[in-house]
Amino acid sequence: MDLQQWINRGVEIMLEFGPKLLAAILIWIIGSIIIKQISRALKRLMLSRNYDVSLQKFLLNLINWILKIVLIIVVLGTLGVETTSFAAIIAAAGLAIGLALQGSLGNFAGGVLIMLFKPFKIGDLIEAQGEMGVVKEIQIFTTKITGLSNREIIIPNGALSNGNIINYTTEGTRRVDLIFGVGYDSDIKQTKDVLMKVLTSNPKVLQEPAPTVNVIELADSSVNFAVRPWCKAEDYWAVYFETTENTKDALDAAGIEIPYPHAVEIKKKDNFI
Prior knowledge:
Helix content is about 50%, strand content about 20%. It has helices spanning about 5-50, 55-80, 85-100, 100-115, 155-160, 190-200, 235-255, and strands at about 125-130, 130-140, 140-145, 150-155, 165, 175, 180, 210-220, 225-230, 230. Helix 6 packs across helix 7 (about 235-255).
């Protein structure tokens, strides 16, 4: 093949692949700029919504790599490379990795959902997965809470995001539900006055919403009163124990009979509103 033939062949190749190459380069440059703009916009959005720093980095890297892989496939397709098999290989690899890390991916997805919808935050008192405690740390795969007896409890985010969560801190106040029983010979009005005085004399009991005292049950050996003071979330257990102790003393001082052997019957009545 002489020089002229080489030149002609080169011109043919340039005419055939030159536009594709230029288009691929242009797509790569524009695509890279768009990916950077998307990453910056997502970062600003996450900062404005106070996303966890570790979650920000992980999500930005993940999205950045996904967009780059898509861009590479588009560029290869522009150059005329068959991308069907390439995409199939990526899909198969992704499926294998997903199956191997199914549990971890579920926990990761749960962590992302918790970060996005924020059903609780650090410092909140929550009850979930049969555990109750104060949220200590929210990680990508797990959430750590400190139990009421100072135990560290680690709950996988997958189970946590898919189960019921009771947040006792969100509203700022809690109602303490107690039941106290007195003898049938006791005067109902006097008993209600004594119980209400126990509540109103406690500075931790809120005046709004107002505490309530009502007859809730005529039991076999006692007339039971539902005693329901409201308090700040952090004062719940203090009000619970103080009300129990002060009620015993107040009933004794007023000469109101407390049936034996249940000196003071205390029950939680979460099903009552």
